[in-house]
Amino acid sequence: MGIRYNKIKDKHQREIVLLKSFPCKYGKCSFCNYIEDNSLNEEEIDRVNLEVLKEITGEYGVLEVINSGSVFELTPKTLAEIKRIVIEKNIKTLYFEIYYGYIKRLKEIRDYFKGIEIRFRMGLETFDNEYRIKGYNKNFSLNEEQLLEIGKEVYSVCLLICTKGQSKEMIKRDIELGLKYFKAITINIFIDNGTIVKRDNELVKWFVENYSYLADDDRVELLLDNKDLGVFEQ
């Protein structure tokens, strides 16, 4: 049994919930085993989620909602309960995850939560188009013009680093471009999880030796372990 609610008490203070959802629309990323938390049973999804959402206090005025996919895979009942709670608890800022395929639909969520600042996070994983497609099986390619447009809509991107096939130069470039195009980035050091993507421990050692200072950068959330946010489903 995992943990679905936590408080982030140091940098970027907020409450965070891990919710169940319908299957990820894409669901083909070669590094992802989170989709095992998805369900087709809407009643079960809502039963789990409504219980988790009871934990929210609103004490920081900021809530992050994560699920094994995008906000668009949450059920109508779950979304309605989130809306009720953020109004009741006077939550001003709400984080949601999205997949690139939903980039033209973000206004729907902003309109639904009118009056709340919505910050979207997107799993970009890397700015190297070839590696994103061939290494991670995340099948989209972006040019600079598209990145500039996405940067207007998406608050932050997640970068997946230290996988076999990556290089130090790729990681350096990913961090530089992430901070160039987006207000914030989340850096995830890959943990072996039974998928075909594998961790490169030499890159991990190099990264920790050279980039630990990013933990003090307000624009960066550095996750050395995928359980660092305190929510996970086993």
From TrEMBL:
Gene source species: Fusobacterium mortiferum
Domain of life of the organism encoding this protein: Bacteria
Boundaries of every Elp3/MiaA/NifB-like radical SAM core domain copy: 14-225
Any one Gene Ontology molecular-function term assigned to this protein's record: iron-sulfur cluster binding
InterPro entries: Elp3/MiaA/NifB-like_rSAM (IPR006638)
Protein name: Radical SAM protein
